[in-house]
């Protein structure tokens, strides 16, 4: 529960108003690893942190932080933790001045990068970094300001994906947060413009974005407890499905206790 509360607090702190429509949170409750009754078990049970207010539309509620007691300076984004790790490795040859504003990039094997693209990526990496928990300040229309806003948008989406269980989310779902995160550009275009950071899957009718650095050969590099629990549940369901259609005993006696335990919790 402390991890769930922290995740929800971080999500709210990425907005300038420290608030989000409850319906937007409902869109991604599973991706964020929230319990299905999070309105009662998380929000109501932590009234010192969260408050539900009436929105400006019928049947709409706004989730707000009661007080900004979580100092932003105490929160570090996932990309900032990566920079520290890279600099502190024993065999590190990283130039700290080069990596201070950088994001981890990883392109697919065999993808050839042109010199122009390499130069653009290097230039973009050096742009000043505005973290997802920092104030955006006054928006300007200069080319440098627009590029800075784009990098901030990348930082916000990168942190959003880092907070999810599987480091992935449907593009349509994350679009519900665009206005609240003050992202003025098209979300899908943002993913396409930064293929070294994000992988956009367009299979079927659903477009899904993955955090590229979180995966290796199609598997999560650092699975979390919620992800592992879901995989075990899926394996049990598939095991029972195969056994049912094959007409053989579901599983050996050594594993029967696990199924009995699962059935007892239904």
Structural descriptors:
3-stranded antiparallel beta sheet, 11 helices, 44% helix, disordered C terminus, 266 residues, globular, mainly alpha
What is the C-alpha radius of gyration, as a whole number of Å? 21 Å
* Intertermini distance: 22 Å
Largest sheet: 3 strands, antiparallel
Share of helical residues: 40-55%
Q: Please tell me the overall pLDDT.
A: 83
Strand content: 5-15%
The count of DSSP E runs of length 2 or more, i.e. the number of strands, is 8
State the helix count. Answer: 11
Side-by-side strand order of the widest sheet: 1-3-2
Give the oligomeric state of the chains in this entry, treating copies of one chain as homo and distinct chains as hetero.
Answer: single chain
Organism: Eucalyptus grandis
Pfam families: PORR
Domain PORR: 2-241
Protein name: PORR domain-containing protein
């Amino acid at each position: 529960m402390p991890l769930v509360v922290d995740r929800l607090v971080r999500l709210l702190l990425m907005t300038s108003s420290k608030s989000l429509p409850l319906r937007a949170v409902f869109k991604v409750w599973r991706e964020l690893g929230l319990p299905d009754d999070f309105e009662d078990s998380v929000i109501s049970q932590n009234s010192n942190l969260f408050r539900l207010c009436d929105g400006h539309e019928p049947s709409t509620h706004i989730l707000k932080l009661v007080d900004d007691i979580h100092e932003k300076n105490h929160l570090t984004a996932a990309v900032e933790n990566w920079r520290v790790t890279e600099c502190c490795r024993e065999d590190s040859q990283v130039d700290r001045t080069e990596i201070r504003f950088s994001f981890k990039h990883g392109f697919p094997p065999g993808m050839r990068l042109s010199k122009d693209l390499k130069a653009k990526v290097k230039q973009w990496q050096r742009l000043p970094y505005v973290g997802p928990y920092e104030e955006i300040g006054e928006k300007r229309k200069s080319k440098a300001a627009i590029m800075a806003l784009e990098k901030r948008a990348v930082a916000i989406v990168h942190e959003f994906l880092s907070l999810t269980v599987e480091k992935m989310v449907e593009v349509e779902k994350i679009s519900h947060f665009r206005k609240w995160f003050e992202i003025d550009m098209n979300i899908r275009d943002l993913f396409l413009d930064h293929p070294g950071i994000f992988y956009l899957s367009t299979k079927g009718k659903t477009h899904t974005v993955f955090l590229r650095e979180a995966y290796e050969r199609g598997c999560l590099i650092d699975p979390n407890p919620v992800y592992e629990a879901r995989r075990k549940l899926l394996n049990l369901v598939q095991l029972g499905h195969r056994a049912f259609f094959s007409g053989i005993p579901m599983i050996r006696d050594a594993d029967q206790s696990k199924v009995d335990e699962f059935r007892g919790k239904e």
